[in-house]
UniProtKB/TrEMBL annotation:
Known function: May be an activator protein for the gylABX operon.
MF GO annotations: DNA binding; DNA-binding transcription factor activity
Alphabetized PROSITE patterns for the sequence: HTH_ICLR, ICLR_ED
Gene3D superfamilies linked: 3.30.450.40, Winged helix-like DNA-binding domain superfamily/Winged helix DNA-binding domain
UniProt-recorded name of the protein: Glycerol operon regulatory protein
InterPro entries: GAF-like_dom_sf, HTH_MetabolicPath_Reg, Tscrpt_reg_IclR_C, Tscrpt_reg_IclR_N, WH-like_DNA-bd_sf, WH_DNA-bd_sf
Organism annotation: Mycobacterium dioxanotrophicus
Alphabetical UniProt keywords: DNA-binding, Glycerol metabolism, Transcription, Transcription regulation
Short name of one Pfam family: IclR_C
Xref: SMART domains: HTH_ICLR (SM00346)
Length: 258
């Protein structure tokens, strides 16, 4: 086997061992290099190298008692992010219900997953024609209002990397040009909300606003969607303000104080 094919295997093994170090520290609370090496079954020098990397990233920290280590605050940061996502569902349902009641249109909470969004909360509006349930569905980010406001929070280079080479068309109105998408994302950053105009489905319009976690990072979007004849573009500004206010209320509930 060529030597360059062994390198990825070694890298994966190092990742696995680093995760074992974290699991051992979680179980024992504190441990030294010798103890960790014995648990994993590797030489102490291997553990020392792993700990040096983990410590540089804040996942492990050395105690004042020389030679002992414990989990670092980067673990807390990651756990906090997961907790925020879990709290998001619990803390947003009643607000979505209120928005749906106020606007008469379907209200959703969505998160970004690669180049797509996943809807995790929904409240159906009282409008005469109810839209189908979107909960659990994955939709293309560039063709949805939620996706646009979530992409707007990312650096342009990351947006392009996530989207790949081509933006797929779903209706004649879908944005398939990267330059135009960039312009729309810039407008979304400036205004604090993003629209879609029959870009995912003909006859369906929507607006969305960002939801932020305790760090101020955009982790989700609140969208209000409805039939284009009812949620007309002339209403976008008005409905967007409702979305922004609701998204801010949810953000405050999960710890955002900005």
């Amino acid at each position: 086997m060529p030597s360059n094919s062994r390198q990825p295997v070694a890298a994966v093994q190092s990742v696995d061992r680093a995760l074992q170090v974290l699991e051992i520290l979680a179980k024992l609370q504190t441990a030294g290099v010798t103890e960790i090496a014995a648990e994993i079954g590797v030489h102490k020098s291997t553990v020392s190298r792993l700990i040096a990397v983990l410590e540089s990233r804040g996942f492990v920290e050395q105690l004042s008692d020389r030679g002992k280590y414990q989990l670092g605050f980067s673990i807390v940061r990651l756990a906090g992010s997961t907790t925020a996502r879990m709290d998001l569902v619990k803390q947003s349902q009643d607000i979505c219900d209120q928005v749906a009641e106020k606007t008469g249109e379907t209200t959703n909470i969505a998160i970004l997953d690669g180049d797509r969004i996943i809807n995790i909360v929904e409240s159906v509006g009282r409008g005469e024609i109810a839209l189908r349930s979107w909960v659990g569905q994955s939709n293309p980010a560039h063709a949805t209002s939620s996706g646009k406001i979530l992409l707007a929070a990312l650096p342009p280079s990351e947006v392009r990397a996530r989207a790949g080479r081509k933006l797929e068309a779903y209706t004649p109105a879908t944005v398939t040009d990267f330059a135009r998408l960039g312009t729309e994302l810039e407008a979304a950053r400036e205004h604090g909300w993003a629209p879609t105009r029959e870009e995912l489905e003909t006859g369906l319009n929507a607006v969305a606003a960002p939801i932020r976690d305790h760090n101020g990072s955009v982790i989700a979007a609140l969208s209000i969607s409805g039939p284009a004849y009812r949620l007309e573009q002339s209403r976008f500004d008005e409905v967007a303000q409702v979305a922004i206010e609701a998204a801010e209320r949810i953000s405050r509930r999960i710890g955002y104080i900005g």
